[in-house]
Amino acid sequence: MKLRMLATTFGAAALLGGCTSMDGGTAPKAPEPLKPVDTAQFYTGRWYEIARTPMNITKGCVAGTTDFHKADDGRLMDRDACRTDTPEGKEKMFAGPIDLLNPGRNSKFRINYKIVGGLLTYPVTFWVYDHGDDYSWFMVTDPSFKNLGYFTRNPRPPQAEIDRFTARAKAIGFTGEIEYPTQFAPGEGQPGS
Questions:
Q1: What is the pLDDT of residues 33-46, one digit of tens each?
Q2: For residues 62-83, average pLDDT
Q3: CA spacing 20 to 30 A to 15: which of 6, 45, 83, 120?
């Protein structure tokens, strides 16, 4: 039993090792977020991952989602999930409470992911670089500007929208790789799904 727990601990640490740069640690290199975030509109409901920087933790992941909600105690919570290889594949999931790092603007936040059955916390910082005025999309980065993601409320945005995101990422100076793992199961995002 102890050996299994130790193996699980090292496995989770290795899996999250691909995210180590997500927390920055040095002076930020990312552009500052463009506008404040309305917590009631942004930190609620489901967001669909349309594009991202490849990382160890997301290797083989498709159908990525982020769900925000409030816990019974009023604290903001995050649940990130994806499916392995296909939309019907095994779910990979990480979750934890959210700390807003710039209250009032609410565009910088840290998720304290609970790993190894909740025994350990792995903090990761995100900046919401920009979002739609109608909160239908957002672009997120880390302070080091090594990772970038694009999320929408629609699991199947038009290709023109994805192309605009890609052009915008390049225009703000992002030079990293971007992948588009947007395979979602039929009916995903439809009422009742």
A1: 999 999 999 999 99
A2: 96
A3: 45
